[in-house]
Structures are given as C-alpha cells and as structure tokens.
Amino acid sequence: MIKLLTELCGTFGPSGEEEAVAALVKRRVKDAVGEITTDAMGNVYARRPGKGARVMLAAHMDEIGLVLSHIDARGFARFSNIGGLRLDMAANQRVRLKSGRVGVIMEEERGNKDDKKIDRLYIDFGYESGPAARKEIHVGDVACFDRGLECQGNRVISKAMDDRVACAVLIETARRVQKTPNDVTFAFTVQEEVGVRGAMPAAYTLNPDVALSVDVTMSGDVPECRPMEVALGDGPAIKVKDGGHIAHPKVRDLLVRLARKMKLKHQMEVLNLDGATTDAAAIHRVRGGVPTGCVSIPCRYVHTVSEMVDMRDVEGAVKLLAAFVTTDLRKEGF
Questions:
Q1: Helix spans in the chain (H)
Q2: Are 210 and 272 in a shared domain?
Q3: Cβ 148 vs Cβ 10: under 8 Å
Q4: Distance of CA 50 to the CA centre of its chain
Q5: How far is CA 43 from the centre of its chain?
C-alpha cells in the first residue's frame, strides 16, 4: 500500500482543486468495483451493487492549501488559507502551485514574532520583479505544501496524510472485498477541509442506510500534547465523539464487536477539540438522518507538512472496514 499512498499524497489537491486526485482514485479503484460515477461537485462514487443495506464509506480527497491574494511590486505573493492552516508551522515551508512553480513561505522581520497572523507571511517564488511574477502567477492561483513521503520502519511521514491515507484505505478495502451482502459505495469526497461541503450532497445522493467516515485523528503520544487516549501503533480508532459528531451507538458498538471478534487491536477515540470533525458531521444530518460512525487513523502533527501514521494502524483499518461491509447489515438492524 506504500506505493498507492505515495501516489495519493504526492498529488496536487487542495480543497476545490481535487480533479487530479479524483482521476488517480478512479484509475486505482476501477478494477475493484462495478461502477464509478462523479457528481457536479466532484465527489467520486465507486459502487459495489448489492441487494442488502445501502452502505456509504467516505474519505475526503482534499488537503489544506493556500490561494494567492496579492502580488507586490517585487514579485512577492500574499495569500489566504484554504482550510485549517497552522500559522505556527507555515513559515519556511515550500509550496507548489498547480503549474508546478515552487515557492517558500517566509515571515516578515518587522513586528512581534509571537504575533502569528497570516498577514505577516508571504511567498517568495524566486522572481526578480513584480512584472516577471505577474506573467506567470496570478491572484486566485492555488498552492499546496510541497513535501515527499518518507518511510521510517512502520511509520510513514508525508504532507496530505489527511486524508489521502483514508482514500488508500478505501481503495484497498474495495480491492479485498469481492463479495458482500450489502450495496456498498466508496465515496471519495471534496472540500472537507473547508466545512465538510462535499459529504452532504454525497450522502443526499446515495441515501445510505448506514455510513462510515474514514479520516485521521490526533494522537496523544507525543511530549506536552493535549491529553488523549489515542496512540500510533495501537490500532485504528473507533470514534465516540468529536467537535461535530457523536457516533451512532449501534454503528460504534458493531465496530467494537467486529474488532473484538477478529482480535484486532483497536482503540476508542474522544476528540475533545472544538470544531475538529470529519465528513460524518455532514452525513449523519442528511434527509431523515443516517446512522453514522467513524474509523480514524491515528496521526501525529495533523495539518502540517509532516503528518505521521503507522502502517499497522492503516492495515487494521482496512481489516475493520472489510469486516463491516461483509456483515449482513440488514440483520444488524440497519
């Protein structure tokens, strides 16, 4: 799965610009499912038709990014954020435009260095003048962070693990699950990082009987971090609640029961951070309501260029999802 993850994390795809990721997803999943469609927003649906419960598994394709907002007389660019940009981590990082042009984010020397505001930051694309810059870059151009994937034993580090690692989990699950009593759709959604925008029309379109969001979550296993009972290497996390969603108890309890039956290492997740959530926050509110849960991949340094996951947790997530979609969910009351 490392090759797939390298491809996914390395593909340009900030919120609103997911086309290249969507094209890659379709190429990698096409041999595993019966049909692939795309909606008006850009969500990708890979469906394994069946006669049982309608199941939606969702992972978002977008990553955090930047959009150019001003180009000055010397060719330096100001920018606005796309999604939850961590200003304390942004300075000195490289970014890449869709065109391929690379720049570096720098911080003004003047003023209070502790005043972490976006208007203190600028991007140096290496142009010698404003006119030279404006021939190639423009206000409205979108950029993503530029950092490759590295393997360190079981640990893998890259930009855009949030949420390309979950896209990889869905693709691998689709490959492994050849038969299921359910009607399963693997939904690769857009614009999660800017307010779970793609998941709502996706859920409305699919009208599932039950749904799972698959995403990363923060870990509590690094020095001086927010206390949290989630650690890398301890298995996929079954969500209890986060800032936008309380997992449906039937879905949560079924996931726990399946993990215990398989003797699969797993952990329970309570993400106590206002506003931090997943596509589940949108899915569970659609139509008359959808019983929705979430399987999380523990991740260190979320929303930085060096997000870290453990491949044993990733493999565990694939096994848990495969067990979920091969369970007769009608008999489970969905």
A1: 2-9, 19-29, 87-90, 130-134, 161-176, 199-206, 249-261, 280-283, 311-325
A2: yes
A3: yes
A4: 27
A5: 13
Candidates 203, 247, 222; CA nearest to 308 is 222
Quote the tokens at residue 125: 């694309």
For position 197, which CATH number holds?
3.40.630.10
Instruction: State the CB neighbour count (10 A cutoff) for residue 19.
Output: 16
N-to-C CA span, the chain = 31
Tens-digit pLDDT profile for residues 249-296:
999 999 999 999 999 999 999 998 888 999 999 999 999 999 999 999
301 contact partners, CB below 8 Å, separation of at least 6: 307, 308
CATH for 94: 2.40.30.40
Using CA atoms, how far apart are residues 61 and 13, in angstroms rounded to an integer? 7
* SS3 assignment, position 119: helix
pLDDT in tens, 16-41: 999 999 999 999 999 899 799 999 99
**In total, how many domains does the chain have?**
2
Establish whether 192 is a catalytic residue: yes
Check if the beta carbon of residue 85 is closer than 8 Å to that of residue 64.
yes
What Cα–Cα distance (Å) separates residue 174 from each residue in 28, 119, 215, 222?
A: 10, 44, 17, 33
Domain range enclosing 81: 65-145
Residue with tokens 């003004």: 108
Contact 141, 90 (CB under 8 A): no
Q: Which of 18, 63, 172, 192 is catalytic?
A: 192
Residue 138: both structure tokens together: 């423009």
